[in-house]
Structures are given as structure tokens and as C-alpha cells.
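Could you help me review a protein record that somebody else here produced? My question to you is simply how this chain folds and whether the C-alpha cells agree. Thanks in advance; the entry in question is below:
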Amino acid sequence: MSYTSELEHWRIEAKAYYDHVEEKHIISDPARGIRPQPIIKRWEVKRLLGRGGFGEVRLEKHGDNERAVKRIGTTGEQLKDAEYVRELKALLEFSKPKASQDSHSLPTSRILT
């Protein structure tokens, strides 16, 4: 699978705010007669974990789940196109489940756009 198609596969529709992130998921269950419907997950920002040249990493929480999310700026002269794509590829590789992980420790999130 090419990086472009992998990025599209892992993409989540989300809106990032200062204190939270809202993710839109489409949920359906044809076996139970549930038609596709949007569900919004709200992740609360708990604290800033770090900041670097390409963005910042924040600790976010939704229910009992926590995750570290790298937020990359997409405006201004912060990143050129090639640097942006390279950073997304690195995040994609880092976000993939590792062979040593069992099903109980898989990441609960993907790349936010």
C-alpha cells in the first residue's frame, strides 16, 4: 500500500481546539439494522507533553483512554510540502501497531488531520 493510500486509510475527520479535539466517526451495524450515523468523540487535552520544530505533543483523554497526540501546524511557513509529507510518513510508521503488542495495548487513535 502506498503512503498516500495509507494516509487516507488512517485519516480521521477531526477538529482541534485549544482544550479538546472532536473526532467524527461513522458507525453502523447492518446486522442490527443500524444505519450509518455520525458519532462525535471528544478528547480532552490534559497537558502539553512537549514542543518541537514541527509542532507539539499533548496528552488527551476520552473516558478511561489516554493518548499522546502530535499536532502539526498546517499554516504559515512552518513546514514546506516535502517536510510535511515526511513528518506525516514518520507519524504513520510510529502509529502502526507493533508485532510485539497484544490486542490489549493497541493504539486507540490514528493520525489527526
